[in-house]
Amino acid sequence: MLDFDQAQAQLAAAVTPPNITETCALHEAEGRVLAQTLFATLDLPPADNSAMDGYAVRHADYTSGKALPVQQRCFAGDMPQPLLPGQAIRLFTGSLIPEGADTVVMQEDTTEADDAVLINSLPQLGAHVRYRGEDVAAGAQLFAKGTVLRAAQIAVLASQGYAEVPVYPRLRVGVLTTGDELVTPGAPRGESQIYNSNGPMLAALARGLGTQVVRVEHAMDTAESLAAAFDTLLGDCDVVLTVGGVSVGEKDLVKPAIEARGGQLDLWRVRMKPGKPVALAHAEGKPIVCLPGNPVSAYVVFAMLVTPLLRTMQGRSDILPPTLHGRLVTERAFKETREEFLRVQAEFDAENLPLLRPYAQQGSGVISSLPWATGLARIPVATGAEQGSVVRYYDLSHWLA
Ligand SMILES: Nc1nc2c(c(=O)[nH]1)N[C@H]1C(S)=C(S)[C@@H](COP(=O)(O)OP(=O)(O)OC[C@H]3O[C@@H](n4cnc5c(N)ncnc54)[C@H](O)[C@@H]3O)O[C@H]1N2
Ligand code: MOO
Fold it and tell me: What is its pathway (predicted)?
């Protein structure tokens, strides 16, 4: 059985980033991955401009009690005139600073009458001026290849005039659920059957990472049904996630089905709880990750082992999200022969380590623990953990993104 950290590294290293680049309109680029490093095409802001509604003045022209004639009303988008000595130009937030002006006086600190403005309180030299290039300098690196484009990155790229961006193709993911006991939600359910929750769950998890889930298939526990599903999935997808049927039972037929079509098993069983029977294989040049059927096991394996593999295939640079540390709040001690991942809720305060409270039922079939948990607490196999132990915390908002 493979050590957890080795397995995590092995899955990410088993695949490669894409070698194809395509162009995507910026307004559709949310969640896409940059395929080239991008640089600033212009200074931002492109010209000195006002941070306030007010008046542009030359600081040295101020004399207490003496109104300055208003030379021009210059709105955002207008070109200002050069400021004449001893005058003021009325301007607004975003108006360009006139040549010769060095300071903006907020309108609240002025009184305007008869086309002249009286300054009641003079700010410091240079006040309320946003200088050309103070935000971004032309030529500076904006984002490195491998960056996921979210609203913040899209804002910067739009401000730089990018209408389209070079991105990697969206990763095409296929999901295969297996098991004779499963029925599709909405279909009639026999007494011995359960609804298939792993299919919709894995599809949503994969989409949450920004991949395209092109197929969600179900196979019965027969070699024929599995072979037909693999035909479809390996034909249409870049990577296949199977779930169930990878343990040691008599109907655990997924691994044999992969081997029957000439595929190879690269890894089977990891020293982790839940998730032990996870397998990595490849067939027809495509990676296949076989997740254990228990819903919690599938969820935890997806977060901890599958996401680094998918991020690598997406061409992302953030393969392993950061982990935090937290303090366990528990009435019982945990000690296993496998690295254990508990579903916990984290509570943050300003000064201390986060407090991590485990869900009462940690069984790998307890689906209700999934929406409840904010993250996973890792209990080291070497030491175990108890009330007050400081353990590693995997925040799911990072690990599932
Ligand atoms: N004798 C042993 N038995 C088991 C071992 C073992 O080492 N020796 N490992 C256990 C562990 S750990 C896990 S995890 C499970 C994983 O087994 P499989 O991956 O073969 O999964 P299944 O047997 O097909 O299903 C397990 C469980 O999950 C339910 N399931 C499966 N698919 C779905 C789905 N799409 N939606 C909802 N629920 C699903 C299934 O009904 C079973 O209850 O094996 C242990 N056994
Ligand atoms: O992975 Mo299994 O869930 O350890 O129960």
Answer: Cofactor biosynthesis; molybdopterin biosynthesis
